[in-house]
Amino acid sequence: MTILAVESSCDDTCVAVVDEDGQVRSNVISSQRAHDRFGGVVPEIAARHHLELIDVVVARALEEAGVDFDQVELVAATQGPGLIGALLVGLSAAKGIAAARELPFAAVDHIQGHVAANFLKLGPAHPVLEPPFLCLIASGGHTLLAHVRERHGFERIGTTLDDAAGEAFDKGARMLGLGYPGGPALERLASGGDPEAFEFPASGSRSRGGRGATRDFAQSLDFSFSGLKTSLLYRTRELDKPERTDRAADLAASYQSAIVDHLLLRCEQALERTGLDRLAVGGGVAANGELRRRLSALGAQVHVPPMELCTDNAAMIASAARYAPRLAYPEYLGLDAYATGERPL
Amino acid sequence: MIVLAIDTATPATVVGLQGADGDVLEARDDPGAGERPGHSTRLLPLAAELLSRAGLSWRQVDRVVVGVGPGTFTGLRVGVATAHGLAQSSGAELVGISSLRSLALGADSDAPVLAAIDARRGEVFLSGYQREMELLSPRALAPAAVSDALSAKAAALTGERPLAVGDGAVLYRWAFEGAGVQVPDDGSPLHRISASALCELGGRAVLGGDPVLPDYLRRPDAAIALEGAVG
Ligand SMILES: [Zn+2]
Which of A6, A44, A180 to mutate to test the interface with B (most CBs of B within 10 A)? Predict the structure, then answer.
């Protein structure tokens, strides 16, 4: 069974060919650098670019895999959540590809895709991770903890109440005068700084809401990054201009350390509560070196797929499609995309 | 040649299927006032229904024709992306045609025809034709500017009284009638893009080398704002 999968939930146009057993035949990712000058992803521009790129990326994924349409047996696409206009381009094209050949179709939840990256067959360096395990997914678009009990689903046991972790990196980078995307730039700057130079609010506390909300939050497995972001703003304001330049590396290191503290605390608490001893990490924030270093000290078995399978990609969507319901032609022709939350029934 | 034609530039979802005998079948979804367009949910089911009505399969389609607008951005992308997927997978030819020209062709008039699609934000997407000839190139403009746009083309628009069709002509009837343009009754089928016009235009279109992409006529707001900020 050869699966052709499309992912277009944000600003990367992705198409992959994956075998039924989880072998990745091709995994093409076309990143849209067009958003950098806007300091963030612009939905309308993302949707336009997806449409300009989609055929070429499909053709390249087939070519790299050495297969043609005749060999494709299942078509899959991300149905949501994500930017609706972006999702609709990939979903519409994928439905068209499947319909013209009356192939079966699998509509995949994007988050389930991140989880399923761990089920791909990638060779000895990255063994397939069998459930149950805990999965931290942290990117510019989502930050959550998934309790994975089986290959076809997960339970969301913690989620961000405001910004995503990647967004916190981007916004922090902007305050420190770094470009977009900010994560890698902030990490580079932080590498020359002292992570204990500045104090940030303790992990697990929250700036907004009453005392009850604060206690509920502390006891939950949820994330909140808006307080950290506000603190960084105050720290930079307290310094005069030359100081801000002198101490930029210290600010970056302390801020990064606070984000990582928060992510790690929740992972630790979740491992303890669930009794799980294995942790998988996905999403673009998995590229952060500080996070990786400190994850290894967690006392759990930590699995991080190769970076191109952590950031948004279509191989993970194909992987999830292996365990998702398969809709026969013509049942899927009327499928719509969804922007937020869980898949509509 | 078997032609499958689709258009999603307006709230309507329109599908046409032209068989080998040249007859055109039409299937469409016209959302009522206040209803959301059904592009994503209705387009392929309508196309599949037409094919089975005609006793044809997807693989027999020689050419996929898609209206590239101008019109609602998301609607256009659903239509164009679907057409890309269908054509790429089946090997059929892919042709993009102007949704405004299709609308005008449906009026089947010897008089000049203005095609007007509601562009939201208080504007219309407007163009003008006399049969094959383009009198007024596609543009987005405020209804109050319709009269000026026409008087600039007064020489071309002499003779028979021009006719305006489309949801933009219905919505801004006053602007067109005030400029001496005739607008059919609100309920007239002339205001809707028809399957036969799509199949006719798309069927005789010459295959081009350019990629088939929407004709947005408007740049993304963010790009305009950024340039404004830069100066
Ligand atoms: Zn993602």
Answer: A44
Q: What are A15's strand-pairing partners?
A: A6, A28
pTM here is 0.95
List CB contacts (< 8 A) between A93 and chain B. 81-82, 84-85, 88
- Across the interface, whether the CB atoms of A96 and B226 are under 8 A apart is answered no
Q: Which two tokens stand for residue A164?
A: 């995503």
Distance B231 CA to ligand 1 centre (A): 35
Residue to mutate among B50, B59, B78, with most A CBs inside 10 A, is B78
Q: 3-state SS of B53-86?
A: HHCCCHHHCCEEEEECCCCCHHHHHHHHHHHHHH
Peptide bond into A184 cis (omega under 30): no
Q: Is A275 helix (H, G, I), strand (E, B) or coil?
A: coil
**What's the pLDDT tens digit per position in A2-47?**
999 999 999 999 999 999 999 999 999 998 777 788 888 899 999 9
CA dihedral for A252, A255, A260, A261, sign (positive or negative): positive
What type of residue is A173?
A: A
B78 lies within 8 A of chain A by CB: yes
Distance, CA of B52 to CA of B46 (rounded, Å): 10
Read off the pLDDT of residues A303-342 as tens digits, 9 standing for 90 and up: 999 999 999 999 999 999 999 999 999 999 999 999 986 5
B45 with A99: Cβ contact below 8 A = no
ipTM: 0.96
Strand ranges (E), A81-235: 105-109, 133-138, 143-150, 153-159
